[in-house]
């Protein structure tokens, strides 16, 4: 078999060699690359390798039969490149909707048909017909006549390449920095072979019958290689970001959207005290020894605590999972923040506070303060010098005075009391819930007084109350709804092939949906109350306006009127808007009128107090509902029907406010929320001044 040397041997071999080396490199580091993008890029490098190698053989051989034989392999590389290149660009630019199986099949049909026809002796002329060997001073080239499929394939690839270059140009225009430079280099890698192909087809070159497209790949393939190594466009984490992450003191684990670990910094290696390489493994497997990390992935946005033993000492980490999504990337970031020092300090002070927080008081037989520990001032705000000599009963809530006085008499007569719960007034006027007990030490010569000990349980009682209500709602309503679901399912089983099956199925679905929404609402409320528990200065008028907008949109047929000033600043929780929405929604939902009417007004009943009145024309709130809220706790025999009013109650009392419910004549209810006036925060004052 005769061979010839051509000046195009070197660029063809260079392109195929570089492409082959790129294939090997990507495969060896496949765990660190974006999976979808890497697969498409490998198809591109394999297409270049096949195309350039086969065309080198086609140019080097001098017989007509040999050139036709290797042309069939050229078409394999051409077809693979015509599909792989646009697919790679779709993955690179984040056009995932173009990477669905139907889209990929549509892109691949014509190239696949062309390859099949080329390898068929019967139908090959539909693609091309070999005419003769054309002799040129630079070598002997195959002269062909293009068929209809060839022309269709050529037009198809030109249109697809122009579309792909357009995507890269749009991406370059809308990005900056490294990303823009990546796009510009890839545009060059796409434009150069396209221009070479056009020049070859139109015979604009001085040497006809020579396809310059694979020859130009000898230039563009090293260009793509430079882009890969310089800017690492296959990586999930670019070079600059990786350097920053490596230098962070926090542990950082990067995962793709399939929870596959793609990178982590040296802090994580030290934290886990292991040399094991986790890259490429699924998080559920690689992090199985740390269930807290795995659980965070299924509940992103939350914060958990990881406790590990490192260097024979306990280490504590705050773990957060954050989902990120850019135009081209998506995944998760696990951040492990070392809080060991903070946790030790917190626990040390927590122990000190727990040991010293108990209030110890000595009172004489008349019940007057003779001695108080410093913890009383920390808890209730009274300096010992200010209250010595005062009767302790003056600081007790009026509703608790009778019971506490009887207990005090019992202590005087019997010696010791059990723990009792009472409300004690704070120096700021609010009421704190205390647990207290007493012991008669009048006969003790060292004491000569009655010893009272107490500790503040306000927050614990509020939290227990919240849990009690939420647990009751879940326990009570979930049971009822599940009974409906079970009954409906039973009917489905019994009424198979019956016309009522759909009715029962729909009933079961509705009940299950209601149950799910109730559970989710209870959980959200509990989480938000814990997270937004800080009282701050808020413009209650703005909160009311936002609540009115939401409720009016939800209940467009309701008549909701309002009489509010331009502004009114009060001390309240940020969650107050949600409470107002619940209050308005309850008034509408529980109305038995064709057109529910609700009136909201804001007034200043007295100096320093802002009142919000929500009046409706409904049947009124049941007596049992009011008693439970006023009592402040639920019992086994009494509970409210929902959590809306409880939410309002918690929001108001958390800000030392007050909630009252009154009936109106001839029907209807007025719910009044009382908040203490406040001054706008410094930032708000600046904003108001600017406006």
Instruction: Provide the gyration radius in Å.
Output: 39 Å
Distance between the termini: 89 Å
Mean pLDDT: 79
Q: What strand line-up does the widest sheet have?
A: 4-3-7-6-5
Which consecutive residue ranges, at least 5 long each, have pLDDT under 50?
Answer: 236-240, 635-640
* Oligomeric state of the chains in view: single chain
Class of secondary structure makeup = alpha+beta
Write structural notes for this entry.
- With 691 residues, the protein is α+β, with helices and mostly antiparallel strands.
- 52% of the residues lie in helices and 20% in strands.
- The protein is built from 22 helices and 19 strands.
- It has a 5-stranded antiparallel beta sheet with strand order 4-3-7-6-5. A 5-stranded antiparallel beta sheet has the order 9-8-12-11-10.
- The protein is elongated.
- The model is unreliable at 236-240 and 635-640 (pLDDT under 50).
What's this model, at a glance?
This protein is an alpha+beta fold. Helices cover 52% and strands 20% of the residues. The strands form five sheets. A five-stranded antiparallel sheet has the order 4-3-7-6-5. A five-stranded antiparallel sheet has the order 9-8-12-11-10.
């Amino acid at each position: 078999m005769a061979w010839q040397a051509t000046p195009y041997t070197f660029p063809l071999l260079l392109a195929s060699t570089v492409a082959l080396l790129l294939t090997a490199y990507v495969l060896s580091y496949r765990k660190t690359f974006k999976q979808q993008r890497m697969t498409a890029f490998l198809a591109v490098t394999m297409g270049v390798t096949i195309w350039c190698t086969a065309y080198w053989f086609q140019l080097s051989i001098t017989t007509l039969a040999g050139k036709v034989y290797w042309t069939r392999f050229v078409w394999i590389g051409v077809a693979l490149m015509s599909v792989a290149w646009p697919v790679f660009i779709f993955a690179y630019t984040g056009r995932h909707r173009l990477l669905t199986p139907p889209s990929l099949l549509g892109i691949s049909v014509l190239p696949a048909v062309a390859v099949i026809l080329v390898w068929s002796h019967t139908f090959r002329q539909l693609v091309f017909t070999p005419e003769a060997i054309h002799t040129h001073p630079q070598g002997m080239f195959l002269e062909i006549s293009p068929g209809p499929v060839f022309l269709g394939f050529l037009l198809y690839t030109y249109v697809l390449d122009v579309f792909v270059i357009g995507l890269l140009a749009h991406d370059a225009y809308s990005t900056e920095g490294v990303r823009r430079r990546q796009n510009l280099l890839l545009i060059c890698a796409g434009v150069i072979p396209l221009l070479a192909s056009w020049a070859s087809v139109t015979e604009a070159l001085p040497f006809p019958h020579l396809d310059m497209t694979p020859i130009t790949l000898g230039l563009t393939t090293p260009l793509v290689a430079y882009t890969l190594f310089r800017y690492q466009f296959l990586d999930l984490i670019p070079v600059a970001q990786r350097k920053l992450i490596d230098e962070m003191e926090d542990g950082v684990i990067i995962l793709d959207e399939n929870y596959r670990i793609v990178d982590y910094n040296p802090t994580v290696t030290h934290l886990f005290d292991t040399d094991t390489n986790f890259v490429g493994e699924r998080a559920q497997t690689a992090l199985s020894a740390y269930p807290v990390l795995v659980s965070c992935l299924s509940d992103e946005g939350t914060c958990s605590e990881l406790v590990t033993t490192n260097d024979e000492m306990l280490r504590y980490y705050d773990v957060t999972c954050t989902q990120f999504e850019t135009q081209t990337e998506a995944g998760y970031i696990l951040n492990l923040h070392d809080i060991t020092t903070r946790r030790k300090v917190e626990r040390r002070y927590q122990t000190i506070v727990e040991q010293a927080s108990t209030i110890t008081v000595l009172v004489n037989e008349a019940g007057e303060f003779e001695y108080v520990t410093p913890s009383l001032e920390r808890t209730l705000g009274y300096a010992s010098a200010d209250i010595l000599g005062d009767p302790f009963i003056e600081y007790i809530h009026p509703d608790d005075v009778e019971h506490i006085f009887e207990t005090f008499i019992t202590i005087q007569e019997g010696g010791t009391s059990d723990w009792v719960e009472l409300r004690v007034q704070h120096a700021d006027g609010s009421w704190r819930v205390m647990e207290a007990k007493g012991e008669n030490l009048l006969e003790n010569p060292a004491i000569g007084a009655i010893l009272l000990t107490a500790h503040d349980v306000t927050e614990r009682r509020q939290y227990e109350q919240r849990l009690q209500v939420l647990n009751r709602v879940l326990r009570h309503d979930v049971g009822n709804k599940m009974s409906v679901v079970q009954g409906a399912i039973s009917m489905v089983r019994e009424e198979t092939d019956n016309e009522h099956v759909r009715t029962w199925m729909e009933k079961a679905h509705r009940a299950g949906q209601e149950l799910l929404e109730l559970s989710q609402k209870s959980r959200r409320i509990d989480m938000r109350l814990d997270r937004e528990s800080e009282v701050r200065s808020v413009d209650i008028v703005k909160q009311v306006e936002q609540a009115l907008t939401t409720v009016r949109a939800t209940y467009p047929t309701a008549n909701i009127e309002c009489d509010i000033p331009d502004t009114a600043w009060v001390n309240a929780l940020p969650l107050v808007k949600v409470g107002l929405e619940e209050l308005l929604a309850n008034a509408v939902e529980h109305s038995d009128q064709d057109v529910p009417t609700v009136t909201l007004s804001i007034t200043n009943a007295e100096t320093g107090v802002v009142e919000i009145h929500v009046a409706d024309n409904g049947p009124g709130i049941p007596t049992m509902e009011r008693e439970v809220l006023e009592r402040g706790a639920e019992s086994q025999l009494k509970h409210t029907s929902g959590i809306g009013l409880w939410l309002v109650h918690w929001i108001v009392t958390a800000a030392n406010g007050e909630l009252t419910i009154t009936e109106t004549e001839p029907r209807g209810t007025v719910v009044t929320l009382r908040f203490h006036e406040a001054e706008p925060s410094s930032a708000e004052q600046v904003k108001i001044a600017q406006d």
